[in-house]
Amino acid sequence: MKAASGKAMWITWHEMKKAITSPVIVVLLVLFIVFNGFQIFSQSFLRDELKIVNDITSSYGNAITEAGLLEMQGDIDGDAEQLGAQQDAEMYLEEMTYEKYEQVNPAGQKAIDRLSLNYTYYALGMDLEARYKAIDMEELRKDLFDAVPMEGRLAEFMGGQFTKWENRYKEIVETEEYKEWFFAGHYRMHSELFRSLVKNIAVQSILLVVLITALIANYEVEQRTQFTIYATKKGRTLIWHKLKACLNVSLLAFVLLAGCSLGLFFIVYDYSSVWSTAVSSGLNWEYKLPYITWWPLMVWQYLILVLLVELFAVLLVAILAFTVSLYIRNSYFTWVICLSMLIALFLLPSFLNAFPMLQFIASLNLSLLLMNPHMYFTGGTTFTMIQYFELWTILLWLIISLISSGWSIRRFYKRDVA
Hints:
The chain is an all-alpha fold. The chain is built from 19 helices and no strands. Helix 11 packs antiparallel against helix 14 and helix 15 packs across helix 16 (331-347).
């Protein structure tokens, strides 16, 4: 039994080596990591300003409280007084002109910049409650039904989803979950991490995974050794080792790409003080609305869940690409066809505006899931922001991928290997 298991593992490893040792795969992986690193460092001029949040949380705690803001105000006014202010910090900063700033020595300019940053966060904290409670959920409900003319069961379902999301908003307000320090919204750090970097990782992983899968699945055909290999004792059962190898190398590629890219990101940007901050923090307000998540999620929890969702989606794409490979028998044609299908899936819902039910069903697709990591587990006014959207999409495509791969492998056992 152990000998058979060891031999099976050796065969799978041999299949994996075909992709791992491929110069194309290795070069692409390195280029993607370098590209992500370049993008991260190109925005790193903001990192010194972002560090102010660490000082704020260490001095006043992670929660935004009246007592903390009052203490913060006293400290800010004290800092302004040390800079020679005859009034409070607000008036001092309002009267600070460019000419006055230029007359101050470099050390003084740094102190003024720090005072300005502290005051910005103080002002955001003071205004947060009024701003957050001013969100008009009824207006958002109206926007939902104005955007898509729904009726029947779909209208009832989406109305129920919105009611749950509204109740979640009320829960956040009651528990004051939104009153936690985070990077100011105008820095858009949530988007920088998830909408930019993690989405890049997802797209790059797909490019790699489809090529890896096509290369392993079609290796014998492209080397013209299929008549020799598939005529052996192991014969066509080799296809199962190929599928395992595709999934293993896809997992490895994703882990390497995500690990290196995220490692560089967190070397540049210090998240040490905000890991336990709720993603639904009112300061994490980048666009029209803050991120109102379906469940209380801290930043570290959100990151892990996002990576797990992306990983499952990438592995599902690997299975689907394996299915296509058994029909196409050419690595690069398979790569082009799979990417074209994913692009078509991404665009499909936009062509179904006149058919809301079909648009809703079409929205449960892997491409939309992969391209929107910044909106995972977050409610809103679109079909992709329903509760459990990520779970339903993965389950649906798991069923599709298992059925299609099972059918194609069964066909592979019966067809001519030529």
